[in-house]
Design brief:
Layout (H helix, E strand, L loop, with lengths): L1 E8 L2 E5 L3 H11 L2 E7 L3 H11 L3 H9 L5 E5 L2 E6 L2 E4 L4 E4 L1 E6 L3 E7 L4 H10 L2 H4 L3 H36 L7 H18 L3 H8 L8 H74 L14 H22 L4
Parallel strand pairs: 3-9
Antiparallel strand pairs: 1-2, 1-3, 4-5, 5-8, 6-7, 8-9
Length: 331
């Protein structure tokens, strides 16, 4: 659906346009440009725009379907860009990715939004308060969209770094053996989502900053270079975060393995002690069991000192076994 369609001349908003077919003609007549904003349009809703502004079919298909990779393409005098704004949901540690499809022509700019991003509305609001920049035309809109998007990238990168610090503190400062692999893996997955929004945009922004795309006003060229610098900084930050998460995950798994090994060693030691005491207890049990049977002619059973002799044998056997186990470090 079309959320706004307005004519701008000399950087000033003139009026809202309800007739999309006449928008291009009016922009040419008034020596200005038309800015059209849409949200999740259908193919039928795009038909009027496609006819009125001669939009290429392939670009329209990408704009409607969404879930495209960030890119910059030229169709004759038309420039088509895909940009992915992001925001970080801190309490859930989730990177929420939206998508913008931007058509930049000589007298128009069409912005198609998929998702909850407020970048288009913020861009329109700030540019309408800056007539000098708005007077530079549709390229000023594309620059502002990119600038605000990359600013969001920087904010998300800072939030990810904060969570990385928390994870490092948990892994290296918590109770040994406590497993944080699930949280680390979840954050690593979100960083990959972030990477897919940022890294493919580096090439297109470089083309805009280096003058490879015709039609960009000279006054905007240096601003695109500033956006490129910030984009590269975020890409480096993502790479560093991903490498750090990999290292922290390995360290966490190593700590868990060491803790499990310690538990296993302790369990083996406990089992040896239990087995040793069981063996010591088996001797008096066996002797008492034999002499407790109602059987005649057992050695020394019928003598006056037989009971004490049996006790001495039991005690001596237990002492010898105890010393043997101590010598072998079972006790």
């Amino acid at each position: 659906m079309i959320v706004d369609c307005a004519l701008y001349t000399r950087g000033v908003r003139q009026h809202r346009l309800d007739d999309v077919f006449a928008a291009a003609q009016e922009a040419e007549h008034e020596d200005g440009f038309v800015w059209i904003g849409l949200v999740d349009p259908s193919a039928d809703e795009f038909d009027a725009l496609a006819e009125g502004f001669s939009l290429p079919e392939l670009a329209i298909e990408d704009a409607i379907r969404a879930h495209q990779r960030p890119k910059l393409e030229r169709y004759g005098d038309l420039t088509f860009a895909i940009v992915k704004p992001v925001r970080y949901v801190d309490h859930a540690e989730v990177v929420d990715v939206s998508e913008l499809a931007v058509f930049v022509g000589h007298r128009f700019v069409v912005v198609v939004r998929h998702g909850d991003s407020r970048i288009p509305s913020r861009a329109r609001q700030t540019l309408e308060g800056d007539a000098e920049t708005m007077a530079l035309g549709p390229w000023a809109v594309l620059h502002r969209l990119l600038d605000l998007t990359v600013d969001q990238y920087l904010e998300v990168a800072r939030s990810v770094d904060v969570d990385l610090d928390e994870i490092e503190d948990q892994v290296f400062g918590s109770v040994p053996g406590e497993d944080h692999a699930e949280r680390i893996y979840r954050l690593k997955s979100e960083v990959q989502q972030f990477r897919r929004a940022v890294v493919p945009l580096v090439g297109p922004v470089h083309r805009l900053a280096s003058g490879q795309v015709p039609g960009i006003p000279g006054d905007l060229q240096e601003y695109f270079r500033d956006v490129e610098d910030h984009t590269l900084r975020v890409a480096d930050s993502i790479e560093a975060a991903d490498n750090l998460l990999t290292g922290v995950l390995q360290a966490d798994l190593a700590q868990v393995t060491v803790a499990q090994s310690r538990v296993s060693v302790q369990q083996n030691a406990d089992m040896r002690k239990i087995s040793a005491w069981a063996a010591i207890g088996l001797v008096p049990t066996a002797i008492a069991g034999i002499y407790g049977m109602n059987v005649r002619n057992l050695p020394i059973a019928d003598t006056a000192f037989g009971f004490w002799a049996v006790l001495v044998v039991i005690a001596a056997s237990c002492v010898l076994l105890h010393r043997a186990f101590r010598r072998n470090r079972w006790l």
